[in-house]
């Protein structure tokens, strides 16, 4: 092949590569935008985060951002769905497939929640909602529907499983018992994002030890009394 033909062939190949690269870049943009938005929402809060900042951090124009997400509210909802609420189908299937005891399931639930949400950037979403929910009632209602309600339903299913098997006490108010599992996890998030600054430097909070201890405390309250005992 002559040099001119070789250069021409390379030029054609390079030209053919351009749409493919552009297409890959286009397909990656929503994820890049959501990652950038999550970082900024956690760092600055919802109110203080501007759409332009998200676009800059993701390396795209503001127009590109609004092409995928028409408003900052839509962007926030997509961040919540990507990082938390979109995973409930997977978590509910794990409930169906779980083969251990209900006590084991409670421990698993709390540990896995910390590993997958609490220890990640996504935990900042909970802190953001605690601090800004009253100023954005539409987002608060969305978070209630997408995160809080499905989470409570899943915890209730775990507790009901234990009651049905005789592991947990019958007659518990499962609606309120569910808070005994979620409340310690919210505290751990607040320690991570806010309250740790108030804690003594010589008293570090180990998340794994904390989660396991809270699970033990909860389970001693849930477990059925041994036959013939008063407590």
Automatic annotation (TrEMBL):
Pfam families: TetR_C_11, TetR_N
Recorded GO MF terms: DNA-binding transcription factor activity; transcription cis-regulatory region binding
Alphabetical UniProt keywords: DNA-binding, Transcription, Transcription regulation
InterPro entries: Homeodomain-like_sf, HTH-type_TetR-like_transc_reg, HTH_TetR, Tet_transcr_reg_TetR-rel_C_sf, TetR_C
Residue ranges of DNA binding: 50-69
Entry annotated with the keyword Metal-binding: no
PROSITE patterns assigned: HTH_TETR_2
Ranges of residues in domain HTH tetR-type: 27-87
PANTHER family, A to Z: HTH-TYPE TRANSCRIPTIONAL REGULATOR RUTR, HTH-TYPE TRANSCRIPTIONAL REGULATOR UIDR
Protein name from the UniProt record: TetR/AcrR family transcriptional regulator
Organism: Ramlibacter humi
